[in-house]
Write a structure and sequence with these properties.
There is one protein chain. The chain has four helices and no strands. By secondary structure, the chain is an all-alpha fold. The model has no long low-confidence stretch (mean pLDDT 85).
Length: 101
Amino acid sequence: MTAQPDHTAVPPPVPAPAAAAQLLAQLRDDRRADTWVPAFERDWAKALEDSRHTYSLTPLHDVVRTWQLRLAAAPAVDAYMDSDRDENGFVDLADVLGAPR
């Protein structure tokens, strides 16, 4: 009998071939398009260059997954920012730690 782990790591699903184009269309429709579209295009260009050097699609898949998660989290971030959050009770870390020695 060989020792086998009870569980194996499941790799994340591979994005569909058109996922980047669909994601870019969604980003262009978002209210943050002015900042998100150039940031996505910059990330995509870097991942494309990395893929050319490594002969791997992993950097491209990582960019698509990251931006899909950002876009999915945007409504929750908006709700938090629009809520009546009270941040007055926080203490500055410099006050807790004191002056650097």
